[in-house]
Amino acid sequence: MILQSDKPKEECAIFGIYNSKEAANFTYLGLYSLQHRGQESSGIVSTDGNHLYRYANMGLVANIFTQSKIKELIGEAAIGHNRYSTTGASFLRNAQPVRVESHLGPISLAHNGNLVNSWDIRNRLERDGSIFQTTIDSEVIVHLMARSHQTDLLQALCESLNQVRGAYSLLVLTPRYLIAVRDPNGFRPLVMGKRPDGAIVFASETCAFDITETEYVRDVEPGEMVVVDHTGVRSLYPFAKAQPSLCIFEYIYFARPDSYIFGDSVYKVRKELGRQLARVMPVEADVVIPVPDSATIAALGYSEESGIPYQSGLIRSHYVGRTFIEPDQKIRDFGAKIKYNVVKEVVNGKRVIVIDDSVMRGTTSRKIIKMLRNAGAKEVHFRVSAPPTISPCYYGIDIPTHKELIAATHTIDEIQKYLRVDSIAYLSLERMNKAVEGHKGGGFCDACFTTKYPVEFQEHVGNQKSLFTEYSVEE
């Protein structure tokens, strides 16, 4: 069986480097540090200035790239991708980076995000004779480039991206260029750095810079195209201006706490979310515990602000993936128990505050609370360091459908009763915004909390995964 998580699923990770003799090795290390953003497949494409060399497979970075495979990825520039599928099923054919041949020469592309009009573009291209090799939305970009009448690759890329809508942080590799692009709204993060040897590096988060000894330079700006070649680095702004709509969930849940994204520290913001929660939703208790690992920093903030001691009351296994043998059905809540275990001496006889960063369906939260009760917790108070999630995301996060989201279909009192807690409280939208007050990068996308979507989409966009269910055979 596949253990289902009650969390939104990671999107994807991208990493790129130009002008390094160890380009493939550094890309491997960067992808390794960004594994939290996608665990389904991973791939690297490199170039020696003449050809593109690609290897991709299903699974985790460390299991895919052997030393011999890395050596085959020759050249001084490379891009890499870790994938979690938000559009297109989880098969090898959908692993990125995508590589194609065209009149513009060989092109490879790695994409983090989701294009909300890709289905319509794909239908049009297929009617005009295009044959797609994958079911991912990213492939429409290279098809648009290949069909462009522009003879200059940069102009063809700009023309193609002006036809798509939605979220994209892109890395494009050719024998001549490494190009980094961020959509005009800036939904997904993309940072730029420089190594001591002069190599230019791009990544989804700065944690990939630490492992590759890269100095953070700046964020790629929303609507910016950064072009790197043998002449140096230059920026283009080929898109119409848009209101920045940075994904607030990156701070709440996705990004690693040791990263800087959108120009700020994830650790700092996450801790402030916990502090804000303690200020407005206090409760008398003996101990504060997080649901690890993503709520750990928010719980520290709550503990420091409230003065209630922080403890590790839940221990999470980091080796949970797929299991095909479930034990006797009498072992209830197997999925939660194999992922979490309670430290009884921390909670037994105590009034416990449980901090979590988000609640989707509520099923895992209910099982965790039951485990705490069974371990002797006297009271359980549930606190969430984000507003109620009431709507799906169409910009690159796999959040359940509206009818599956417990906060979209139940009142707070009903959720409290379902979870069987003594009290429950979410952080308000206003307090969440206070945690990022003074942020210089512009506004945030909070559509999953408000249903106010900054980029329009067709109703069927959220069902694109189900449209490709005919691909039922693993490669």
Automatic annotation (TrEMBL):
Domain Glutamine amidotransferase type-2: 12-231
Binding positions for Mg(2+) per the UniProt entry: 294, 356-357
Keywords attached to this entry: 4Fe-4S, Glutamine amidotransferase, Glycosyltransferase, Iron, Iron-sulfur, Magnesium, Metal-binding, Purine biosynthesis, Transferase
Annotated binding of [4Fe-4S] cluster, by residue: 247, 393, 445, 448
Cofactor field: Mg(2+); [4Fe-4S] cluster
PROSITE patterns, per the entry: GATASE_TYPE_2
SUPFAM superfamilies membership: N-terminal nucleophile aminohydrolases (Ntn hydrolases), PRTase-like
Active site positions, chain numbering: 12 (nucleophile)
Gene3D superfamilies the UniProt entry points to: 3.40.50.2020, Glutamine Phosphoribosylpyrophosphate, subunit 1, domain 1 (3.60.20.10)
Keyword Iron-sulfur: yes
InterPro entries: GATase_2_dom, Ntn_hydrolases_N, PRTase-like, PRTase_dom, PurF, PurF_N
Comment on bound cofactor: Binds 1 Mg(2+) ion per subunit.
Metabolic or biological pathway: Purine metabolism; IMP biosynthesis via de novo pathway; N(1)-(5-phospho-D-ribosyl)glycinamide from 5-phospho-alpha-D-ribose 1-diphosphate: step 1/2
EC number: 2.4.2.14
Family membership noted in the UniProt record: In the C-terminal section; belongs to the purine/pyrimidine phosphoribosyltransferase family.
Primary role: Catalyzes the formation of phosphoribosylamine from phosphoribosylpyrophosphate (PRPP) and glutamine.
Protein name: Amidophosphoribosyltransferase
Organism from which the protein derives: Leptospira kobayashii
